[in-house]
Amino acid sequence: MGSSAALAIAALALTGCSGGNGGAGPDSAANVGGATAASDPSASATPIKISANIRPAKAVKVDTAVTVSATGGALQDVVVRAVGGKKLQGTLSADGSGWTADGGALEPGTSYVINATPADGGAKWTRRFHTEDLSLDQQTYASISPSGGTVGVGMPVVIHFDVPVTDKASFEKHLSVQSTPAQKGSWHWFSDTEVHWRPKTYWKAGSTVTVNADVNSVAAGGGIYGQSDKTATFKVGDKHVYRVNMDTDQMKVYSNDKLVRTIPVTTGQPGFITRSGIKVIIEKDEKHTMNSETIGIPKGDPNYYNMKDVQWAMRMTYSGEFIHAAPWSVGSQGHANVSHGCTGMSTANADWLFHFTQIGDVVNEFGTDRPMEVTNGYGDWNMSYADYKAGSAL
């Protein structure tokens, strides 16, 4: 009996080690679940390998475009979300081999989680990471003007940055202006902290304009990044253009290319010549204090003045040229230039013009040999469009 048992054990051992077709055991891979290896496609499949372009152990730069990739299979879905915050928008490739963030910026000092779901129904792949911290000195904030309302046809789009932008090309790619109806135009950098956009010709009356500064976490150069995205929408009113002939001392007021009023004026006397050029109304003030010290005339000078509550004042230059009521010079208006550079008119005419005018209306003053500087107010229209466009960083 012992001999028979030994023979049985030997037979089992030979059967279990056989590579032939006659003896697969009940626990072998070929018979799990009653299926053969040939009928189970997952038996020899290579697991999907998922990876991302960030290192979880290192703070990630905020301008990083997150990507997730799959090899050996496809991705079904990818979600990148700030912990307790917003989802990062992205696009999954048509073949499911990768996902790329759609230019959406990462926030500084923020934790994120990536969840990638493989298309084969396998377990989700997860990765956590944290972005670098940035101080306010390492971020630049954009302010857009006009921020809303209705403006005149000469109003440029103006964006100010509180920290200098040295990588202008990078930033300009994230600035856009859309108008209805569409109008051709260009950006022009006046400094590291100020960029303008103007159409090739004056805005079309009745336009709607939307400005987007999608600069959040965009590299501004020198280790500086955009602080947040900004947007603004404004409308363009009727076309108002005022032509001031400083030889004849007459202002012709046009609305939608039709002459609506001619106003006698006085402009700058010798030594205080009013600039010739295309100016834009920057601000309006029902009452304004005018002090000669702001234009370099000190106390004690025979030309010194300090006039409070000058009525219906509308600024045209940063240096202090206004249109305003000048009841003290009515006798000279239409005949002689007696001001310190401003364009003066009667109180009644100034009242009418003030309430007719929009910020952004155009004032074309001509007849002197003193030119308007392009940076002394909104002097954008004193450049040809070709020269203006040359000021773009792109």
CATH fold annotation of the largest domain: L,D-transpeptidase catalytic domain-like
Gap from first CA to last CA: 96 Å
**What summary fits the major beta sheet?**
5 strands, mixed
Structural class call reads: mainly beta
Number of domains: 3
CATH class value of the largest domain: Mainly Beta
CATH homologous superfamily caption of the largest domain: L,D-transpeptidase catalytic domain-like
Number of distinct helices: 4
Q: What is the CATH architecture term of the largest domain?
A: Beta Barrel
Helix content: under 10%
**Unreliable segments of 5+ consecutive residues:** 1-44
Nearest-integer average pLDDT: 89
What this model shows, in words?
With 394 residues, the chain is mainly β. The chain has three domains: 49-130, Immunoglobulin-like; 136-237, Immunoglobulin-like; 240-380, L,D-transpeptidase catalytic domain-like, CATH 2.40.440. It is built from four helices and 28 strands. The chain has helices at residues 2-16, 168-172, 347-356, 385-389, and strands at residues 49-52, 67-71, 75-82, 87-88, 90-92, 98-101, 111-118, 125-130, 139-140, 142-145, 150-151, 157-161, 175-180, 185-191, 194-199, 208-213, 219-221, 224-226, 230-236, 240-245, 250-255, 258-264, 277-280, 283-291, 306-315, 322-325, 343-345, 362-366. The strands form seven sheets. A five-stranded mixed beta sheet has the order 22-21-20-28-23, with no helix packed on it. Strands 1-2-6-5 form a four-stranded antiparallel beta sheet, with no helix packed on it. A four-stranded antiparallel beta sheet has the order 4-3-7-8, with no helix packed on it. The longest helix is centred in the N-terminal third of the chain and has 15 residues, at 2-16. It starts with a helix and ends in a 5-residue tail after the last helix. Mean pLDDT is 89; it is low at 1-44.
